[in-house]
Amino acid sequence: MSFDYFMYKGVRFSPGSYSEEILNFAENEFQVLDDDVYIVTYPKSGTNWMIEILSLLKKDGDPTWCNDVLIWLRAPWYETREGQSQIKDVLPPRVVTSHLPFHIFAKSFFKSKAKIIYVLRNPRDIIVSLYYFSKIICHYKNPASFDKFFEDFVHGNLLYGSWFDHVKGWMQMKDNSNFFYITYEELQEDCQGSVKKICNFLQKDYDAKLIESVVKHSSFHAMKNNKMSNYSLATEEFIDHSKGSFMRKGVSGDWKNHFTVAQSEHFDKVYQEKMKDLNVKFFWEET
Ligand code: PPS
Q: What residues does the Sulfotransferase domain cover (predicted)?
């Protein structure tokens, strides 16, 4: 299938799930509800992991809903063609997902009491994860090579725009009480502690049994074996299952197996330059 990406407010989108009209609706007309919780991410940051965690919390740790209902129906991407139709069937309190950068996000959010959980991941691992994902998802262009893909990421020429802009845009919200951010790496390092932090942010009571159940049923192993969460039921129109799996490796640091020494040094320089004014040290910088 041959197609071109299009630009909306300086950001690239694929015509597979988006159009100018759909994005305009998402930005200007979509009605955020006060009890909505939004999972916002740059792609491949741990979006679906967070959907599973919030789904389990919503059902007090009972995995039945996760085992019975497709993950993208539990927390639709409100800015996509499919998501805008799926979300009509979701009863409040809703969990809603988005990859949108800050400047295109639903205007009505900023007048609401809704909450955002922003999940981040080491951008080096995002490059690797997104590279493989781009080969299996039909709405993305097939990468010409890892080197070219790396350069496109560094220059912000991929879908949803520059990772650096996405993070800097959303981190403007970091001191707001309705905004919480967490990294993929923290979830891996201490999932129990991370789920407790999420409960505190959502003002949800918890006990050891609830936390244990959420951690167990949202693990990489559990999600990989759950056909409602592992994308094996996504249609061939969306994913070419012969080329790979959505639940690929689920590890941190795989970039070390892919970057050359020159790429690693180049990325460090770009990262330092682009992130120097943010004044936030993320978990992957501390280890
Ligand atoms: S997407 O397409 O943007 O919504 O993808 P997203 O869900 O953000 O990220 C997919 C990557 O997250 C990994 N993953 C997990 N890792 C650890 N634990 C759990 N439970 C989990 N669920 C998904 C998934 O394997 C992708 O990472 P890679 O590195 O490609 O394996």
A: 34-278
